[in-house]
Design brief:
Structural class: alpha+beta
Number of helices: 4
Helix content: 10-25%
Radius of gyration: 24 Å
Number of domains: 1
Number of strands: 9
Distance between the termini: 66 Å
Length: about 190
């Protein structure tokens, strides 16, 4: 049973049923564990894309990997869990990882998290890559589809599909975005 407070007409609030034999306020039992700790801090660089015509539903997320996302097992697991949760909600996810100081491939770890693997990654997955992931229908079932591209210094960045719905993708041109950013920041 739940109760709520009501305004008493003077601007003050009283508990519903106060003075009328209402049930006592519930208090939870003592916790089964209490330890001093902090959640792993990690950088979060992402762009979220919403469908304004259908109730502002989140349809795509562009995740830019930072060094803090790759520095510890807990940080990697937290990042991978977030990406898996987005995919589970049918949100397409683009991962852009240019962090080369830590040799972990979070795309590979994401696949491992969901019990799959990409044979194209080989024995030593590249540290720098860009990948687009989404669950799309095929007949009566849904399939995880990915577009993975290793990144190499001096080579053009790829164009990835950014899925806005099951049947609509737009080109996400990383090279054009990079070049425009360099022009805007007056770099090179």
């Amino acid at each position: 049973m739940a109760t709520f407070d009501q305004e008493d007409g003077t601007g003050s609030y009283v508990q519903a049923g106060e003075g009328s034999g209402a049930a006592a306020v519930w208090a939870p039992a003592e916790p089964t564990m209490a330890i001093e700790t902090e959640l792993a801090a990690f950088d979060e660089y992402e762009v979220r894309v919403y469908d304004a015509r259908h109730g502002r539903r989140l349809v795509a997320a562009i995740e830019i990997v930072s060094p803090a996302n790759k520095d510890r097992p807990e940080s990697r697991a937290q990042f991978v869990a977030k990406c898996a949760a987005l995919l589970r909600r049918r949100v397409s996810v683009v991962l852009i990882d240019v962090v080369t100081v830590r040799d972990f491939n979070l795309y590979d770890e994401l696949l491992e998290w969901i019990g799959e693997q990409d044979q194209a990654l080989g024995d030593i997955p590249p540290a720098a890559y860009a990948v687009s992931c989404c669950w799309r229908p095929r007949g009566a079932s849904r399939w995880l589809e990915t577009w993975n591209h290793p990144l190499t210094v001096g080579r053009p960045l790829p164009i990835l599909p950014l899925w806005l719905s099951d049947d609509l993708a737009i080109p996400f041109d990383l090279e054009a975005s990079y070049e425009q950013t360099c022009r805007d920041l007056r770099i090179a």
